[in-house]
Amino acid sequence: MAEFRYVARELSGKQVDGTVSAASEREALGSLTAKNLFPVSITLAAAAKAHQANKTRRVPARVLAVFYTQLADLLRAGVPLLRSLDLLVKQTRQMTLKLVVQEVRDQIADGTRLAEAMRQHPTVFNDLTISMVRAGEEGSFLEESLQRIADFTEHQEELKGRVVGAMAYPAFLVVVGGLILVGMLIFFVPKFEPLFETMRAEGTLPWATIALLTASSFLQRYSWVLLIIIGIASYFIQRYFANDVGRLRLDQVRLKIIGIGRVIRSLAVARFCRVLGTLLRNGVPILSALNIAKDATGNRVISAAIAQAADHVSSGRSLAQPLAECGQFPVDVLEMIAVGEEANNLEQVLVGIADKMERQTNRQLDLVVRLLEPLMLVIMAGVILFVLIALMLPIFNSSSMTAVETLFSRGLC
């Protein structure tokens, strides 16, 4: 039940306000009407708003993994589901999960099944979790399903952590390099400009120095304009990539990036194989499993290819054939899937493919990072060297001309 604050008028026309408890806004309006009150406005009360906001926040994957493991352990020990959820509500410190588990527990007490109760909270429980829980309930192996969900969640979080950790240092170098360059152009280069005024007027400044001074002058005078342009461009770019066409285009570009594209493709295929294998192992029908697994790839190009393959599978074809036609899966992966279908152990083969591809992806990622780090350092060094050469070149030229003039004046040349 939620608390709603209302402003209403009585039959006499007098305005009144207060709060009413109801499951929904419609029910609250009905309650007011039954009291002969005519609502002017109705909103969630502050406490209810906070409660609703907490429920819509995401729960960290590691916290969810612990929850699934604890629930599986309690059920395995013979503790009834309602009692298990009561215990977890008391133990859980993460407020969002605490509120959600309490609501799930209340719905189950009213006769709803666990999977259906979880479905009411899509920001916390994804389709993979709901499908595996439903399969576990129907097949009487709920504890095993929950433990597999926990293992899968932990594994995916570890993989994500490795990817983010590997890319953190190159990203740090890019940010630091950009800040150093901007700092030099705004604070360091302008100090040399008075030295070059005469040479600039005579037209004897090297092109590199002219370019550097122009960039420095532009940043000093129009940095606010540049920030506005960057802000507007970022807004429109974000809007473009927020729609389906933009996201698809971005994913296409990602797959074509030299070096990184292979890593992205391997990660997407590995996620697909692991999710599909896990779902099939838990008794989820293949078409339902494909629809869930395609959304786990994180890439819309590969997801669209899997959706097309699912259509072919629904018409009676094998899985390997349509996946081969889409051109997004490596040949060795397709061969292993075909063998798994023939041997009737596809789920085991898919999990094995995921393990293999994740190891391969880790090696590829390490190689890309090892190449990126020295490349970024070389680029940073090159930029700083260009700035220094552009500043020192006029001084060297001026010194050389002075030396030559001195030699001529002494009659040594």
Summarize the structure in words.
With 413 residues, this protein is mainly alpha-helical. Among the domains are: 2-54, Ubiquitin-like (UB roll) (Roll), CATH 3.10.20; 58-125, no CATH class. The protein contains 17 helices and three strands. It has helices at residues 25-34, 46-56, 61-76, 81-91, 95-109, 114-119, 127-139, 142-188, 197-202, 207-242, 244-256, 260-281, 286-294, 300-314, 320-326, 331-343, 346-409; strands at residues 2-9, 15-22, 38-44. Strands 2-1-3 form a three-stranded antiparallel beta sheet. Strand 1 and strand 2 form a beta hairpin. The longest helix is centred in the last third of the chain and has 64 residues, at 346-409. The N and C termini lie far apart (100 Å). The mean pLDDT is 83.
Percent in helix? over 70%
* Spatial gap, N to C terminus: 100 Å
User: C-alpha Rg, in Å?
Assistant: 32 Å
Order of helices and strands: EEHEHHHHHHHHHHHHHHHH
Q: Biggest sheet, open or closed, and with what strands and sense?
A: 3 strands, antiparallel
Low-confidence residue ranges: none
- Count of β-strands: 3
Strands across the major sheet, in which order? Answer: 2-1-3
Arithmetic mean pLDDT: 83
% residues in beta strands: 5-15%
Helix count equals 17
Shape: extended
Class by SSE composition: mainly alpha
Give keywords.
single chain, 413 residues, mainly alpha, Ubiquitin-like (UB roll)
Which helices and strands occur, and which strands form pairs?
Blueprint: E1 2-9, E2 15-22, H1 25-34, E3 38-44, H2 46-56, H3 61-76, H4 81-91, H5 95-109, H6 114-119, H7 127-139, H8 142-188, H9 197-202, H10 207-242, H11 244-256, H12 260-281, H13 286-294, H14 300-314, H15 320-326, H16 331-343, H17 346-409
Antiparallel strand pairs: 1-2, 1-3
